[in-house]
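Feature request, filed as a ticket because there's no other form

It would be nice if the structure record came with a short human-readable summary line next to the tokens. Right now we just get the raw output. Example of a typical job, pasted below so the devs can see what we mean:
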Amino acid sequence: MTEPPNGPERASPKSATRDANSAASDEYIGRLSSIEEIAAAVRSCTRCGLAETRINAVPGEGSDSPSILFIGEGPGANEDEQGRTFVGRAGKLLDELLGAVPLLRSDVFITNVVKCRPPGNRDPLPKEVRACWPYLEAQISLLKPHVIATLGRHAMNRFLTNTRISDQHGRATVWRDIVIFPLYHPAAALRSTTLRQTLENDIRGLPAAVLQSLEMSATRSQTPSEIDVSIANDPIPPASTEPSVDDEANKNRLF
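Raw output as currently delivered:
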């Protein structure tokens, strides 16, 4: 597992045993072979202090072969009570916006960076993000989405560091051969008519983002001779991306 984009903290000698246990736990999470196994591990997780204050852990829900993976920052009060993602007012708005694409909740997968509610809906602490990061990486690896749609600036910054959501919303960026598509958080849209309209306009761009990902997959699957011909016919070189993850099994999905 790689570190979350915020990076690791410097370990102290007193934390050596704890770090070793954490590394072993990370390896165990990386070996989980289904979304259901990850969900079970999340529900019994005690890797950080949020386990002591949660009512329910919230692993995520949706299709097990989604073209689009939505990622928020963390569960709220309603999600904590029900153990499900985006079930409050913001969740209802998200469902409504998905319908404009059109998509159903069952067509996509929805999860969060951290799987337990931070007390008082505060921002997750770096150590809490690190504790949950292996679960998110395992979900991404198994789901193999074409597009990761981040909801809100905090979720976006886990993938696109040192960026502003006001600059990035509705724009596709490549991360590990997956298209990252930042969106404003539905909760913010509930407080602003302008942001709600912006979010609705942006979310309608998801089909184009999926098509961009499919085109990238097609390019990666070409033989060297095919790539040479493609380059000869198109003088503009393809954009460079980070190291690939295998999405061949689902490359022909649109939604």
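Something like this underneath would help us a lot:
The chain has one domain: 18-250.
The CA atoms of residues 60 and 77 lie 15 Å apart.
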